[in-house]
Prior knowledge:
CATH topology: Rossmann fold
Number of domains: 1
Protein name: Putative ABC transport system ATP-binding protein/lipoprotein-releasing system ATP-binding protein
Structural class: alpha/beta
Organism: Oceanobacillus limi
Order of helices and strands: EEEHEEHEHHHEHEEEH
GO molecular function: ATP binding; ATP hydrolysis activity; transmembrane transporter activity
Shape: globular
CATH superfamily: P-loop containing nucleotide triphosphate hydrolases
Radius of gyration: 18 Å
Keywords: ATP-binding, Lipoprotein, Nucleotide-binding, Transport
Bound molecules: adenosine-5'-triphosphate
Mean pLDDT: 93
Helix content: 25-40%
Largest sheet: 6 strands, mixed
Strand order of the largest sheet: 6-7-8-3-9-10
Distance between the termini: 37 Å
CATH class: Alpha Beta
Pfam families: ABC_tran
Amino acid sequence: MITMEMLIDTLSKTYQSEIEEKQVLNKVSFHVNQGEWVNIIGPSGSGKTTLLKCVAGMMTADTGSNVRIGDLDVLRASEKEIREFRRNNIGFIFQEYELFPAYTAKQNVMLPEWPYKKEAKLRERSEALLRTLGLEERMEATPPNLSGGEKQRVAIARALLNDPSLLICDEPTGNLDQSSRDNVLRILKDLNGEGRTIFFVTHDYDVLPYGDRVFQLKSGVLKEIEKELVINH
Ligand SMILES: Nc1ncnc2c1ncn2[C@@H]1O[C@H](COP(=O)(O)OP(=O)(O)OP(=O)(O)O)[C@@H](O)[C@H]1O
């Protein structure tokens, strides 16, 4: 795991269609230290996923912005450099799990590295991760036979395959019941305790106590707000 800061400076994003131009992010700036858990909250459609995609280099921001993760200049690096960087340093966890239904839990965890690593090593690593996440009995099950909480733990195992410094989470508890949600949040808290940065996008205020800092996205503008103020609200 390497140490990397995130630096986002005056990030703007405008969507352009034939009929309208819509600015979703307006000069968003923030800085995250390695090991922090940062929550981004905001109502539906406020631009949270857009922000996450721009930060991870999955979408280009407007010119004049600066996005850096560790040594990577996200807006100026080549697609190949970004892909390689993401593969080695960032784990992604999504609301919809994004698992392949025809593959077993273990194969799903192995898949991203299948082209790059020896199968025996990969199998060993996947099994170890699934065991750590309490899924030793479910490794050979396919996603349609797993509960939501189990699916999300498989997705977390997959995200951890390359021991990433940064976990980018897009509403990962959005589809879970209370007990699975608490379980996933505790797992993420432990991973955060190991020194991993958590960048968490949500509209669930119950997630906030788990994080260190809270940013609110509203009408394209990102503002840091005091965690205690929102929690006690
Ligand atoms: N490719 C696109 N082209 C045009 N408009 C888009 C595109 N993607 C998103 N938008 C619009 O940009 C705004 C922000 O979308 P985004 O998905 O980033 O919001 P969000 O805060 O993640 O929403 P939610 O919480 O519902 O997932 C929305 O109004 C959306 O309709």
